[in-house]
Amino acid sequence: MSIHRQLAEQLHQRLSAAQSGNAQSVARHRKRGKLLPRERIAVLLDDGSPFLELSPLAAYGVYDDDIPAAGIVCGIGLVHGRPVMVMANDATVKGGSYYPLTGKKHLRAQEVAEQNRLPCIYLVDSGGANLPMQDQIFPDKDHFGRIFFNQANMSAAGIAQIAVVLGSCTAGGAYLPAMADESVIVEGNGTIFLAGPPLVEAATGEQIDAQSLGGGRVHATLSGVVDHRAPDDQSALAKTRQILAYTNSRALRQPEAEPEANPQPRERVFEFLPESAKTPYDCREIIRWLVDGERFEEFKAEHGTTLVCAFAAIEGYRVGILGNNGVLHGDSARKAAHFVQLCEQRRIPLLFLQNITGFMVGSDAEHSGIARDGAKMVHAVSRASVPKLTLIVGGSYGAGNYGMCGRAFNPRLMFSWPNSRIAVMGGEQAANTLATVQQTAATAKGSPLSDAQMQAIRQPVIDQFETQADPYYATARLWDDGIIDPRDTRRVLAMALAACDLDPNPAPPGVYRM
Ligand code: COA
Hints:
- Helices cover about 40% and strands about 15% of the residues.
- It is of the alpha/beta class.
- The strands form two sheets. A seven-stranded mixed sheet has the order 1-2-3-4-5-6-7, sandwiched between helices. Strands 8, 9, 10, 11, 12, 13 and 14 form a seven-stranded mixed sheet that branches.
- Helix 13 (about 330-345) runs parallel beside helix 15 (about 370-385).
- The chain is globular, with a radius of gyration of 25 Å.
- Coenzyme A binds near residues 95, 127, 128, 129 and 168.
C-alpha cells in the first residue's frame, strides 16, 4: 500500500475511534433516553444533508484523559436547505465539561458562523467549565465568557442564535440558552440553573432536586428562561427545525457555472503525490485533478514560476487558486499579490494550496528586497475580503505559511492532508541553527564544541520538531479545522465554497501592478 493510502487509513481509524466514545458512558447516556451528539445532529439536519464536521480530532493526545473531539461536535449542515452551524456538547465525555480546547473549538465554530452569516444552533448538554482546569477556561478574553459575548453580537448582526437544552446547563453554561434568541428544553433531562442543588444547599440551606430547581416545567411555565418545552430529544429537535423556518437564515451560495465532474478518479491523488515530501512535483497535477473538467486558466504562467496562480471552478463555484511550486521568490510573491487583488476585484474566492518551505534566503534575495515583496503578498492576502480557503497539501514552514494564508490570516476554513507538516522551519534546519549559535558563542570563549557535543544539541531539537510538526499535533490544537482524506478534497472544498458568504459589493481597492 502506498504511504499516502496508509496515512488515509490511519486517519479513518483515528476518526472512528474518536466517534465511538467510552462504552460505559454511552450506555448510561442512552439509559436516560438521550441521543448521542451526532445522532442529534442527524435528526436536526435535513434528510441526506451533508455535514462538514470541523476539527473532529481536536484534543487528540493532548490531555491525560482521552477527550475525543474535545467533547464537542461542531460543523456545518443544512436545515430547510440552508446552511447552519451546529455546536453539540458530548455529555459522554467528562459530562460535556469544557476543557481549554473545548472552549477554543466552540469559539472557532462561532467565528466561522459569524464570518459566513450561519445561524448558530447550540445543542447543550454540559457540566460547564472543567473545574480542575478553570484557570485555562474561565477568566481570559478567549475563554468561556466569550461564547456569550459572541452570541449577543451575532444576534445583533441578525445571525440567529438558537439553544436546545438536552441535559445539564449549569452556572456560566446557563447563559447559553438565556442569551439565545429562542430556546427549547427537554422535559426531565434538561436543567438550567446558576447553581445546582448541592451548591444551593451549601449556600442557603435550601434542599431541592434539580428538576424542581431548574427543569423544563420551571423554565417554560414559571421563569420564562426557555420558550418551548419538549418531551424528548427527537421532538426538541423537530421543534428547532420549525423555529429555523422563521429565522432570517441565508441561502446556500449558488455556483456561477454549470457544475462539471472531473474525469480523474479520486484515488489518483495517491499516484501523483510522491512518497517523500522532499521529492518535488508540479502542483498543477493537484489542480488538474481537483477542478471541474480538469480546466484552469493560468495567470502569468511564465513569470514567478514557483507559484502557480490559476482561475478554475469546483462544482461550478469559481475559485482563484494559488499553489506552490517551490520556494517563494520576489517575482512569485509579487505575482501572488497581483493575483489576489484580481480575485478581490472580481469577487472570486481564493484557494491556497500550501506546500511551502518559505521565502528565498541569501544575499541576492535580500538585496533585491525579498522582505518587501513578501510583505506585498502578506498584505494583499490579509486585506482580501473574499472568502479564503487554505489546504495544506505538504509542508507549511516559516513565513511561507503566512503568505499562503495560514491560520493567522483568517482563512474562512482551513484543512490539512495527513502527509502535511507545519512548523516555523524543518527540524534539521532548526537544529543546525541552534547548534551554530551555540558553537559561535563557545568558540568566542575559546572552547569550541566537539562533534559529539554539537550532535547532543541537535538531536533533541530534531525530535521535538518531528513531534510538533505532525498534522495530528496541529489539528489537536485547532491550528486547522481538520485533517481530511485527500480523496474527499473536491467534496469538502465544494461544500465550503457553497457555505461561505461572499459580499458581492465591498469597495475594492483596485489592482496595482506589482
Ligand atoms: N468539571 C470537571 N469534571 C466534570 C464536570 C466539571 N464541571 N462536570 C462533570 N465532570 C466529570 C465528572 O467528574 C465525571 O468524571 P469521571 O467520569 O472521571 O467520574 C464525568 O464528568 C461525568 O460526570 P457525572 O456527574 O458522573 O455525570 P452525570 O451525567 O450524572 O452528571 C452533570 C453530569 C454535568 C450534571 C454533573 O456532573 C454536574 O453537575 N457537574 C458539575 C456542574 C457544575 O456545577 N458546573 C459548574 C461549572 S462553572
